[in-house]
Amino acid sequence: xxxxxxxxxxxxxxSRRRFQIxxxxxxxxxxGTGQTGVGKVLNISSKGIYFTTESAVQPGTRIELAVNxxxxxxxxxxxxxxxxxxxxxxxxxxxxxxxxxYEFRTRALRSVPVLAEPPPKSP
Length: 123
Fold this sequence. Notes:
With 123 residues, the chain is mostly beta strands. It has a domain at 24-106. It is built from no helices and six strands. Strands 1-2-3-6-5-4 form a six-stranded antiparallel barrel.
């Protein structure tokens, strides 16, 4: 039995539904040049991700993506989605990757340093 939705576009060949989440991400190429950069998720499914890049990433490149996830853990802790996979398609400023492994991690928040109280002024 097919997983396709009866209302889906018949021209769509992908078997998984894509979601536009438009979240920031950082990427690191684990093979090849080792380039790093930042971008945005254009769409994502359970098996693939399409995202913007600062420059072209070669197909076949192993890649790690850290996506700022929009949901909070326990309503207070930021999350990031770590994706490990390989680039299957690339354009000058975007790439598509096959998701081979993923995990959610908590995202560090930058804390504002607490300033010590100034010493009392002498008379």
